[in-house]
Amino acid sequence: MSTAANNGSEKDELVIRDESSVLSAQAGGLTSAFKEQWMVISHPFTNNKGLLNSLSNRGILVPVLLSLVFSGLLASGVTQPSERVNTFLLVTLSVWIGEALVIASAIFIGASVASIQGVRLLSYGLLPLIFAVCLCVNVTGPWLRALLVTPCFMWSSYATVPAIATASPSTRRSLVTYPIFFYYMCLSWMILVATSSI
Length: 198
Hints:
By secondary structure, the chain is mainly alpha-helical. It has eight helices and no strands. It has one domain (about 1-195). Belongs to the YIP1 family.
């Protein structure tokens, strides 16, 4: 009877070890995915033609977190709690509807990009704008805020445009890239407007 109890406890121990190894593998996969995407966004001047292919195997968790962090940072500067919720919802909807429109436009024009890949790419492009929000919180002058937001806008745009442009027909690349610039310009304008009230 003691050997049966030992076998049962060994099986339980194996199951616990297997579950912990699966969890650590998933966490490692998420970490490696974030590191890989961070390298693309943090080094926008490198060749990132294979970025869309690498995005096909990644989850949607990090892009959702980035959009929620962006929305939360912009909403944190609002003084009234009811307006804070409205600002958070408005920014979140603007981010996700804007991404959907940009990707739908790219697909309609003829870019060979999957919708989830495009959403992931545009969401990872939010990272420089998140830095801009963090920098603009303590800046009072509107021109200084504009000087801080402009490089982050260009960084976001330049980090995402080459990947989607290479997946589009060469005769229509400007039509595909224009909505990306407009999308990040709208988000940058939201940063300038929201941080002016902080």
